[in-house]
Amino acid sequence: MHCPFCRHADSRVVDSRTTDDGSSIRRRRQCPDCNRRFTTVETAALMVVKRSGVTEPFSRDKVINGVRKACQGRPVTEDALALLGQRVEEAVRSTGSAELSAHDVGLAILGPLKELDVVAYLRFASVYRAYDSLEDFEDAIAELRTELPGERPPVPAPTP
Fold first, then answer.
1. Buried b vs exposed e over 35-58: b needs ≥16 C-beta within 10 Å?
2. Sheet holding 99-101: strands in order across?
């Protein structure tokens, strides 16, 4: 690490701490030449490969915005969305891979979203998994009913 003051090619780490969210490391450094101290923040780059082949940096905000659309009109708070974004980022970073597919990010979203709101989960899954028929929705709802037995049973249709 070059000293920002005298451009000396080396520096000594005086203190290292992780940030509050654990996504980066803050280091206090000291230049052995001029003895001045400076701070660096180090983060691991996490890249997402989209279906088109384009690679872009992972964005927690992009995850939250996508989920926010699925949660529109649902009783989901901004704090819950922020927590979901954090959980998704932790899940994809825990893979240890520097590059992952957009499909893997979508899979990481589905689990926490199902716990947050099943209707929003169905909305997101319908786009992510490209549901194209009523049977796809019925299968997903049947799967949810077996996984979440505490959900209320369907209301029978009124008879004429």
1. eeeeeeeeeeebebbeeeeeeeeb
2. 55-57, 47-49, 99-101
Which residues contact residue 96 at a Cβ distance below 8 angstroms, ignoring those fewer than 6 apart? none
Cα–Cα distance list, 17 to 20, 23, 86, 116, 149 (Å): 9, 11, 19, 32, 44
Alpha-carbon distance of 33 to 9, in angstroms, equals: 9
Contact call for residues 66 and 127 (beta carbons, < 8 A): no
Q: What is the dihedral of CA 96, 102, 105, 106, to 10 degrees?
A: -160
- Per-residue pLDDT 10s for the chain (160 aa) are 889 999 999 999 999 998 776 668 899 999 999 999 999 998 878 899 998 999 999 999 999 999 999 999 999 999 999 999 999 998 998 888 889 999 899 989 999 999 999 999 999 998 888 888 899 889 988 988 888 766 554 445 555 5
Helix (H, G, I), strand (E, B) or coil at 82: helix
